[in-house]
Amino acid sequence: MEGATFGGSSPPLPFFILWPIMIVCVVALIYAMKSTSSRAAKYVLFAIGARLILSALPGYTFKSSPIGLSWNALGTIAIFGLGLLAVRKRPLLDKALLPVYPLALVIIVSGLYNEVPVNLFNTLIKIGYFTILMLAIIDASEDIGGDNLLRKMLIPCAIPFAFQLGTIVLNIPKAAEADGSASYIGGYQHEAAFSVILSIGLLVAAIQTKMKSRYIFLLFIIGTVGIILANYRTTILSLLPLMGATFMILGSQHIKQNQRLLISGSMAILCLAAIMIAYVASGDRFQDLGLIFTDWETLTKRPEYYDDASRRIMSGRAYIWSSYIYAYLDSSQIHHLIGFGPDQWARKFIVYAHNQLVCYLYDLGIAGVIATIFLWGTMFAAALQCKTGPTIRLIAAHVGFFILCMATQPMWMIEGLIFYAIVCGFTMYHLKGSKSVTASRRNLNQPLLPQAYPLNQSAHPHTMNRNHP
Hints:
- By secondary structure, the chain is mainly alpha-helical.
- 66% of the residues lie in helices and 1% in strands.
- It has a domain at 15-254.
- The protein is built from 21 helices and 2 strands.
- The protein has a two-stranded antiparallel ribbon.
Protein backbone atom coordinates (compact mmCIF):
# COMPACT_ATOMS: atom_id res chain seq x y z
CA MET A 1 0.00 0.00 0.00
CA GLU A 2 2.80 2.40 0.81
CA GLY A 3 4.73 1.56 -2.31
CA ALA A 4 8.31 2.64 -2.37
CA THR A 5 9.41 4.71 0.55
CA PHE A 6 10.51 8.29 0.23
CA GLY A 7 13.93 7.55 1.60
CA GLY A 8 15.60 7.24 5.02
CA SER A 9 13.27 7.01 7.98
CA SER A 10 13.17 9.34 10.95
CA PRO A 11 14.76 8.14 14.20
CA PRO A 12 11.97 6.65 16.34
CA LEU A 13 10.83 8.18 19.59
CA PRO A 14 12.03 6.34 22.72
CA PHE A 15 9.58 3.86 24.18
CA PHE A 16 9.11 5.84 27.43
CA ILE A 17 7.70 8.87 25.56
CA LEU A 18 6.21 7.23 22.47
CA TRP A 19 3.52 5.20 24.21
CA PRO A 20 2.37 7.86 26.71
CA ILE A 21 1.84 10.25 23.78
CA MET A 22 0.07 7.45 21.91
CA ILE A 23 -2.27 6.74 24.81
CA VAL A 24 -3.15 10.43 25.24
CA CYS A 25 -3.87 10.74 21.50
CA VAL A 26 -6.10 7.66 21.46
CA VAL A 27 -8.05 8.84 24.51
CA ALA A 28 -8.50 12.31 22.98
CA LEU A 29 -9.71 10.78 19.71
CA ILE A 30 -12.24 8.58 21.52
CA TYR A 31 -13.47 11.61 23.46
CA ALA A 32 -13.93 13.58 20.23
CA MET A 33 -15.89 10.73 18.65
CA LYS A 34 -18.15 10.37 21.69
CA SER A 35 -18.94 14.09 21.66
CA THR A 36 -21.14 13.74 18.58
CA SER A 37 -24.10 11.54 17.71
CA SER A 38 -23.53 11.83 13.96
CA ARG A 39 -22.27 8.58 12.48
CA ALA A 40 -20.62 10.42 9.60
CA ALA A 41 -18.86 12.84 11.99
CA LYS A 42 -17.57 9.93 14.09
CA TYR A 43 -16.15 8.38 10.95
CA VAL A 44 -14.46 11.59 9.79
CA LEU A 45 -12.70 11.93 13.14
CA PHE A 46 -11.74 8.25 13.18
CA ALA A 47 -10.54 8.15 9.56
CA ILE A 48 -8.22 11.13 10.11
CA GLY A 49 -7.04 10.27 13.62
CA ALA A 50 -6.50 6.55 13.11
CA ARG A 51 -4.43 7.11 9.98
CA LEU A 52 -2.24 9.73 11.66
CA ILE A 53 -1.67 7.43 14.62
CA LEU A 54 -0.78 4.46 12.39
CA SER A 55 1.67 6.59 10.41
CA ALA A 56 3.38 7.68 13.63
CA LEU A 57 4.58 4.11 14.19
CA PRO A 58 6.50 3.22 11.02
CA GLY A 59 8.71 0.78 12.92
CA TYR A 60 5.62 -1.29 13.67
CA THR A 61 2.90 -0.51 11.14
CA PHE A 62 5.11 -0.52 8.03
CA LYS A 63 6.16 -4.12 8.64
CA SER A 64 4.53 -6.88 6.59
CA SER A 65 1.55 -8.72 8.01
CA PRO A 66 1.13 -12.51 7.60
CA ILE A 67 -0.81 -11.94 4.36
CA GLY A 68 1.96 -9.82 2.80
CA LEU A 69 0.46 -6.32 3.10
CA SER A 70 1.82 -3.93 5.72
CA TRP A 71 -0.19 -3.35 8.87
CA ASN A 72 -0.57 0.26 7.78
CA ALA A 73 -2.08 -0.92 4.49
CA LEU A 74 -4.49 -3.24 6.28
CA GLY A 75 -5.52 -0.37 8.54
CA THR A 76 -6.16 1.84 5.53
CA ILE A 77 -8.32 -0.85 3.91
CA ALA A 78 -10.28 -1.31 7.15
CA ILE A 79 -10.87 2.44 7.50
CA PHE A 80 -12.08 2.60 3.89
CA GLY A 81 -14.44 -0.35 4.49
CA LEU A 82 -15.94 1.30 7.57
CA GLY A 83 -16.53 4.41 5.49
CA LEU A 84 -18.77 2.48 3.13
CA LEU A 85 -21.05 1.85 6.11
CA ALA A 86 -20.83 5.38 7.50
CA VAL A 87 -21.83 7.53 4.53
CA ARG A 88 -25.37 7.98 3.29
CA LYS A 89 -26.51 6.41 0.04
CA ARG A 90 -26.29 8.66 -3.00
CA PRO A 91 -27.30 8.51 -6.64
CA LEU A 92 -24.47 7.41 -8.92
CA LEU A 93 -24.61 10.79 -10.67
CA ASP A 94 -24.11 12.78 -7.47
CA LYS A 95 -22.10 15.94 -8.19
CA ALA A 96 -19.45 15.02 -5.64
CA LEU A 97 -18.87 11.64 -7.32
CA LEU A 98 -18.86 12.61 -10.99
CA PRO A 99 -15.35 14.17 -11.05
CA VAL A 100 -13.85 11.01 -9.52
CA TYR A 101 -15.19 8.54 -12.10
CA PRO A 102 -12.85 9.37 -15.01
CA LEU A 103 -9.72 8.95 -12.89
CA ALA A 104 -10.99 5.71 -11.37
CA LEU A 105 -11.84 4.39 -14.85
CA VAL A 106 -8.36 5.17 -16.19
CA ILE A 107 -6.76 3.47 -13.18
CA ILE A 108 -8.84 0.33 -13.80
CA VAL A 109 -8.14 0.22 -17.54
CA SER A 110 -4.42 0.86 -17.10
CA GLY A 111 -4.11 -1.66 -14.28
CA LEU A 112 -5.94 -4.39 -16.21
CA TYR A 113 -4.08 -3.82 -19.48
CA ASN A 114 -0.67 -3.77 -17.83
CA GLU A 115 -1.60 -6.76 -15.64
CA VAL A 116 -0.72 -5.23 -12.28
CA PRO A 117 -3.66 -6.31 -10.08
CA VAL A 118 -1.97 -5.57 -6.73
CA ASN A 119 -1.07 -2.01 -7.74
CA LEU A 120 -4.55 -1.59 -9.21
CA PHE A 121 -6.13 -2.62 -5.91
CA ASN A 122 -3.83 -0.37 -3.85
CA THR A 123 -4.47 2.69 -6.00
CA LEU A 124 -8.22 2.18 -6.05
CA ILE A 125 -8.23 1.91 -2.26
CA LYS A 126 -6.43 5.25 -2.05
CA ILE A 127 -8.90 6.94 -4.40
CA GLY A 128 -11.72 5.24 -2.50
CA TYR A 129 -10.35 6.57 0.79
CA PHE A 130 -10.39 10.09 -0.62
CA THR A 131 -13.91 9.71 -1.99
CA ILE A 132 -15.44 8.17 1.13
CA LEU A 133 -13.84 10.75 3.41
CA MET A 134 -15.05 13.58 1.18
CA LEU A 135 -18.62 12.22 1.23
CA ALA A 136 -18.48 11.67 5.00
CA ILE A 137 -17.38 15.29 5.50
CA ILE A 138 -20.38 16.46 3.46
CA ASP A 139 -22.75 14.23 5.46
CA ALA A 140 -21.25 15.21 8.82
CA SER A 141 -21.39 18.92 7.97
CA GLU A 142 -25.06 18.56 7.11
CA ASP A 143 -25.66 16.68 10.38
CA ILE A 144 -23.91 18.94 12.89
CA GLY A 145 -22.82 21.99 10.87
CA GLY A 146 -19.54 22.62 9.10
CA ASP A 147 -17.99 24.78 11.84
CA ASN A 148 -18.94 22.33 14.56
CA LEU A 149 -17.28 19.53 12.61
CA LEU A 150 -14.16 21.63 12.01
CA ARG A 151 -13.78 22.32 15.72
CA LYS A 152 -13.97 18.61 16.49
CA MET A 153 -11.46 17.85 13.72
CA LEU A 154 -8.85 19.92 15.54
CA ILE A 155 -8.42 17.04 18.01
CA PRO A 156 -7.17 14.40 15.52
CA CYS A 157 -5.20 17.14 13.74
CA ALA A 158 -3.30 17.80 16.99
CA ILE A 159 -1.90 14.24 17.05
CA PRO A 160 1.16 14.82 14.81
CA PHE A 161 2.05 18.03 16.68
CA ALA A 162 2.20 16.00 19.91
CA PHE A 163 4.68 13.56 18.37
CA GLN A 164 6.70 16.40 16.86
CA LEU A 165 6.93 18.07 20.27
CA GLY A 166 8.44 14.85 21.59
CA THR A 167 11.25 14.93 19.03
CA ILE A 168 11.87 18.64 19.71
CA VAL A 169 12.08 18.19 23.49
CA LEU A 170 14.40 15.19 23.16
CA ASN A 171 16.27 16.75 20.21
CA ILE A 172 15.78 13.80 17.83
CA PRO A 173 15.95 15.31 14.34
CA LYS A 174 16.14 13.60 10.98
CA ALA A 175 18.67 14.81 8.43
CA ALA A 176 16.82 16.11 5.36
CA GLU A 177 17.83 14.27 2.20
CA ALA A 178 18.35 17.37 0.08
CA ASP A 179 20.96 19.22 2.16
CA GLY A 180 21.36 17.39 5.46
CA SER A 181 19.52 20.08 7.46
CA ALA A 182 17.55 19.02 10.52
CA SER A 183 13.88 18.00 10.27
CA TYR A 184 11.77 17.38 13.37
CA ILE A 185 9.04 15.02 12.21
CA GLY A 186 7.89 13.16 15.32
CA GLY A 187 9.22 9.76 14.32
CA TYR A 188 7.14 9.68 11.13
CA GLN A 189 8.58 8.15 7.96
CA HIS A 190 9.57 11.24 5.98
CA GLU A 191 9.42 15.03 6.15
CA ALA A 192 7.35 15.22 2.94
CA ALA A 193 4.47 13.17 4.32
CA PHE A 194 4.79 14.70 7.78
CA SER A 195 4.67 18.28 6.50
CA VAL A 196 1.51 17.41 4.56
CA ILE A 197 0.06 15.94 7.75
CA LEU A 198 0.74 19.18 9.62
CA SER A 199 -0.81 21.16 6.77
CA ILE A 200 -4.09 19.31 7.44
CA GLY A 201 -4.26 20.98 10.83
CA LEU A 202 -3.43 24.36 9.31
CA LEU A 203 -6.22 23.88 6.75
CA VAL A 204 -8.78 22.93 9.40
CA ALA A 205 -7.87 26.04 11.41
CA ALA A 206 -7.94 28.31 8.34
CA ILE A 207 -11.44 27.50 7.12
CA GLN A 208 -13.14 28.06 10.48
CA THR A 209 -15.78 30.78 10.18
CA LYS A 210 -17.13 31.07 13.73
CA MET A 211 -13.96 30.67 15.79
CA LYS A 212 -12.52 33.90 17.19
CA SER A 213 -9.72 35.38 15.10
CA ARG A 214 -7.16 35.33 17.90
CA TYR A 215 -7.58 31.60 18.34
CA ILE A 216 -7.19 31.00 14.62
CA PHE A 217 -4.04 33.15 14.62
CA LEU A 218 -2.68 31.12 17.55
CA LEU A 219 -3.34 27.84 15.74
CA PHE A 220 -1.72 29.30 12.63
CA ILE A 221 1.42 30.22 14.55
CA ILE A 222 1.67 26.71 16.03
CA GLY A 223 1.07 25.11 12.64
CA THR A 224 3.51 27.37 10.81
CA VAL A 225 6.28 26.77 13.33
CA GLY A 226 5.66 23.03 13.12
CA ILE A 227 5.88 23.00 9.33
CA ILE A 228 9.05 25.11 9.38
CA LEU A 229 10.62 22.65 11.84
CA ALA A 230 9.56 19.79 9.56
CA ASN A 231 11.75 21.58 6.99
CA TYR A 232 10.04 20.66 3.72
CA ARG A 233 10.02 23.75 1.52
CA THR A 234 7.49 22.43 -1.02
CA THR A 235 4.75 22.32 1.61
CA ILE A 236 5.76 25.75 2.90
CA LEU A 237 5.37 27.21 -0.60
CA SER A 238 2.06 25.46 -1.22
CA LEU A 239 0.55 26.89 1.97
CA LEU A 240 1.38 30.51 1.14
CA PRO A 241 -1.93 31.16 -0.75
CA LEU A 242 -4.01 29.76 2.13
CA MET A 243 -2.00 31.60 4.78
CA GLY A 244 -2.14 34.87 2.87
CA ALA A 245 -5.90 34.61 2.27
CA THR A 246 -6.56 33.73 5.90
CA PHE A 247 -4.53 36.61 7.29
CA MET A 248 -6.19 39.09 4.92
CA ILE A 249 -9.71 37.87 5.70
CA LEU A 250 -9.26 37.71 9.46
CA GLY A 251 -7.25 40.92 9.59
CA SER A 252 -10.01 42.92 7.91
CA GLN A 253 -12.99 41.44 9.82
CA HIS A 254 -13.01 44.13 12.51
CA ILE A 255 -12.38 46.98 10.09
CA LYS A 256 -15.13 49.27 8.83
CA GLN A 257 -16.67 48.20 5.54
CA ASN A 258 -15.37 51.21 3.61
CA GLN A 259 -11.81 50.59 4.84
CA ARG A 260 -11.57 46.84 4.21
CA LEU A 261 -10.31 47.13 0.65
CA LEU A 262 -7.45 49.37 1.75
CA ILE A 263 -6.52 47.14 4.68
CA SER A 264 -6.72 43.95 2.60
CA GLY A 265 -4.54 45.52 -0.09
CA SER A 266 -1.99 46.60 2.51
CA MET A 267 -1.88 43.12 4.02
CA ALA A 268 -1.45 41.61 0.57
CA ILE A 269 1.57 43.84 -0.01
CA LEU A 270 2.99 42.86 3.39
CA CYS A 271 2.52 39.16 2.55
CA LEU A 272 4.33 39.59 -0.75
CA ALA A 273 7.13 41.46 1.00
CA ALA A 274 7.44 38.67 3.56
CA ILE A 275 7.66 36.11 0.75
CA MET A 276 10.42 38.09 -0.96
CA ILE A 277 12.37 38.45 2.29
CA ALA A 278 12.09 34.71 2.93
CA TYR A 279 13.19 34.05 -0.65
CA VAL A 280 16.32 36.17 -0.30
CA ALA A 281 17.14 34.99 3.23
CA SER A 282 16.84 31.32 2.31
CA GLY A 283 19.95 31.31 0.13
CA ASP A 284 19.67 28.58 -2.48
CA ARG A 285 16.77 26.79 -0.73
CA PHE A 286 14.19 28.53 -2.94
CA GLN A 287 16.20 30.35 -5.56
CA ASP A 288 16.39 27.37 -7.91
CA LEU A 289 12.69 27.98 -8.59
CA GLY A 290 13.65 30.98 -10.73
CA LEU A 291 15.12 28.60 -13.31
CA ILE A 292 11.59 27.56 -14.26
CA PHE A 293 11.17 31.01 -15.82
CA THR A 294 14.75 31.93 -16.79
CA ASP A 295 16.35 28.70 -18.05
CA TRP A 296 13.58 26.53 -19.48
CA GLU A 297 15.95 24.62 -21.79
CA THR A 298 17.82 23.22 -18.79
CA LEU A 299 14.60 21.65 -17.56
CA THR A 300 13.54 20.08 -20.87
CA LYS A 301 16.65 18.23 -22.03
CA ARG A 302 17.00 14.46 -21.95
CA PRO A 303 18.27 12.99 -18.65
CA GLU A 304 21.55 11.75 -20.17
CA TYR A 305 22.52 15.35 -20.94
CA TYR A 306 22.36 16.44 -17.29
CA ASP A 307 25.76 16.99 -15.65
CA ASP A 308 26.39 16.81 -11.91
CA ALA A 309 25.58 20.48 -11.37
CA SER A 310 22.29 20.46 -13.29
CA ARG A 311 21.20 17.25 -11.53
CA ARG A 312 21.13 19.20 -8.27
CA ILE A 313 18.72 21.87 -9.57
CA MET A 314 15.60 22.08 -7.39
CA SER A 315 16.90 19.21 -5.24
CA GLY A 316 17.17 17.04 -8.35
CA ARG A 317 13.57 17.53 -9.48
CA ALA A 318 14.47 18.74 -12.98
CA TYR A 319 16.51 15.59 -13.63
CA ILE A 320 13.84 13.36 -12.10
CA TRP A 321 11.07 14.91 -14.23
CA SER A 322 13.18 14.52 -17.35
CA SER A 323 13.76 10.83 -16.59
CA TYR A 324 10.03 10.16 -16.22
CA ILE A 325 8.93 12.22 -19.20
CA TYR A 326 11.41 10.76 -21.66
CA ALA A 327 10.73 7.22 -20.45
CA TYR A 328 7.10 7.94 -21.29
CA LEU A 329 7.89 9.53 -24.67
CA ASP A 330 10.09 6.60 -25.68
CA SER A 331 7.26 4.09 -25.07
CA SER A 332 4.52 2.70 -27.34
CA GLN A 333 1.35 4.53 -28.35
CA ILE A 334 -0.86 2.49 -26.02
CA HIS A 335 1.43 3.43 -23.14
CA HIS A 336 1.19 7.04 -24.27
CA LEU A 337 -2.57 6.74 -23.80
CA ILE A 338 -2.94 4.74 -20.56
CA GLY A 339 0.61 4.53 -19.18
CA PHE A 340 2.49 1.59 -17.69
CA GLY A 341 0.03 0.90 -14.87
CA PRO A 342 -0.74 2.44 -11.46
CA ASP A 343 2.33 2.79 -9.22
CA GLN A 344 4.58 1.14 -11.81
CA TRP A 345 7.07 3.99 -11.45
CA ALA A 346 8.40 2.24 -8.34
CA ARG A 347 9.70 -0.66 -10.47
CA LYS A 348 11.72 1.54 -12.82
CA PHE A 349 12.82 4.58 -10.83
CA ILE A 350 14.69 4.83 -7.56
CA VAL A 351 12.86 7.97 -6.40
CA TYR A 352 9.30 9.13 -6.86
CA ALA A 353 8.55 11.80 -9.47
CA HIS A 354 8.05 14.78 -7.10
CA ASN A 355 5.22 15.90 -9.41
CA GLN A 356 1.73 14.38 -9.49
CA LEU A 357 1.12 15.00 -13.19
CA VAL A 358 4.56 13.70 -14.22
CA CYS A 359 3.95 10.56 -12.17
CA TYR A 360 0.49 10.02 -13.65
CA LEU A 361 1.85 10.67 -17.13
CA TYR A 362 4.13 7.67 -16.72
CA ASP A 363 1.69 5.48 -14.77
CA LEU A 364 -1.65 6.36 -16.40
CA GLY A 365 -0.67 8.11 -19.64
CA ILE A 366 -2.23 11.22 -21.10
CA ALA A 367 -5.68 9.86 -20.18
CA GLY A 368 -4.70 9.86 -16.51
CA VAL A 369 -3.36 13.40 -16.73
CA ILE A 370 -6.58 14.64 -18.34
CA ALA A 371 -8.72 12.81 -15.76
CA THR A 372 -6.69 14.30 -12.91
CA ILE A 373 -6.94 17.83 -14.30
CA PHE A 374 -10.69 17.28 -14.74
CA LEU A 375 -11.00 16.34 -11.05
CA TRP A 376 -8.96 19.33 -9.91
CA GLY A 377 -10.69 21.72 -12.31
CA THR A 378 -14.20 20.59 -11.39
CA MET A 379 -13.58 20.96 -7.67
CA PHE A 380 -11.89 24.33 -8.18
CA ALA A 381 -14.83 25.53 -10.28
CA ALA A 382 -17.18 24.40 -7.48
CA ALA A 383 -15.20 26.53 -5.01
CA LEU A 384 -15.54 29.54 -7.30
CA GLN A 385 -19.33 29.09 -7.27
CA CYS A 386 -19.62 29.05 -3.47
CA LYS A 387 -21.44 32.05 -2.04
CA THR A 388 -21.43 30.96 1.60
CA GLY A 389 -18.69 29.86 3.97
CA PRO A 390 -14.94 30.56 3.70
CA THR A 391 -15.02 30.85 -0.10
CA ILE A 392 -11.75 32.73 -0.61
CA ARG A 393 -9.89 30.46 1.78
CA LEU A 394 -11.24 27.35 0.05
CA ILE A 395 -10.14 28.74 -3.32
CA ALA A 396 -6.69 29.42 -1.84
CA ALA A 397 -6.56 25.87 -0.46
CA HIS A 398 -7.27 24.47 -3.94
CA VAL A 399 -4.51 26.64 -5.40
CA GLY A 400 -2.14 25.50 -2.66
CA PHE A 401 -2.91 21.86 -3.42
CA PHE A 402 -2.12 22.44 -7.11
CA ILE A 403 1.23 23.93 -6.11
CA LEU A 404 1.92 20.97 -3.84
CA CYS A 405 1.16 18.57 -6.69
CA MET A 406 3.71 20.32 -8.90
CA ALA A 407 6.64 19.46 -6.63
CA THR A 408 5.58 16.32 -4.77
CA GLN A 409 2.93 13.57 -4.99
CA PRO A 410 0.20 14.21 -2.40
CA MET A 411 -2.26 11.94 -4.23
CA TRP A 412 0.14 9.02 -3.76
CA MET A 413 0.07 9.58 0.02
CA ILE A 414 -3.06 8.88 2.06
CA GLU A 415 -2.17 11.97 4.08
CA GLY A 416 -2.26 14.12 0.94
CA LEU A 417 -5.60 12.61 -0.02
CA ILE A 418 -6.96 13.44 3.45
CA PHE A 419 -5.96 17.07 2.90
CA TYR A 420 -7.65 17.17 -0.50
CA ALA A 421 -10.74 15.32 0.78
CA ILE A 422 -11.21 18.04 3.41
CA VAL A 423 -10.84 20.77 0.79
CA CYS A 424 -13.27 19.09 -1.62
CA GLY A 425 -15.70 17.97 1.08
CA PHE A 426 -16.21 21.45 2.48
CA THR A 427 -16.25 22.90 -1.03
CA MET A 428 -19.16 20.66 -2.04
CA TYR A 429 -20.93 21.26 1.28
CA HIS A 430 -20.77 25.04 0.91
CA LEU A 431 -21.70 24.80 -2.78
CA LYS A 432 -24.87 22.95 -1.81
CA GLY A 433 -25.56 25.57 0.84
CA SER A 434 -25.00 28.36 -1.67
CA LYS A 435 -27.53 26.86 -4.05
CA SER A 436 -30.07 26.49 -1.24
CA VAL A 437 -29.63 30.16 -0.29
CA THR A 438 -30.00 31.21 -3.93
CA ALA A 439 -33.15 29.13 -4.33
CA SER A 440 -34.64 30.59 -1.14
CA ARG A 441 -33.98 34.12 -2.30
CA ARG A 442 -35.52 33.34 -5.67
CA ASN A 443 -38.65 31.99 -3.99
CA LEU A 444 -38.91 35.07 -1.75
CA ASN A 445 -38.79 37.32 -4.80
CA GLN A 446 -41.65 35.46 -6.51
CA PRO A 447 -45.14 36.96 -6.17
CA LEU A 448 -47.47 35.10 -3.83
CA LEU A 449 -50.28 33.42 -5.82
CA PRO A 450 -53.60 32.38 -4.29
CA GLN A 451 -53.78 28.64 -3.75
CA ALA A 452 -56.23 26.83 -5.99
CA TYR A 453 -58.66 24.40 -4.39
CA PRO A 454 -61.00 21.84 -5.98
CA LEU A 455 -64.35 23.28 -7.05
CA ASN A 456 -66.27 21.05 -4.63
CA GLN A 457 -64.28 22.32 -1.59
CA SER A 458 -64.43 25.59 0.29
CA ALA A 459 -61.76 28.12 -0.57
CA HIS A 460 -61.03 28.55 3.11
CA PRO A 461 -58.35 26.10 4.21
CA HIS A 462 -59.88 25.41 7.62
CA THR A 463 -63.09 24.08 6.02
CA MET A 464 -61.31 21.67 3.66
CA ASN A 465 -61.66 17.92 3.96
CA ARG A 466 -58.70 16.76 6.03
CA ASN A 467 -58.58 13.49 4.11
CA HIS A 468 -58.07 15.33 0.85
CA PRO A 469 -54.53 14.81 -0.46
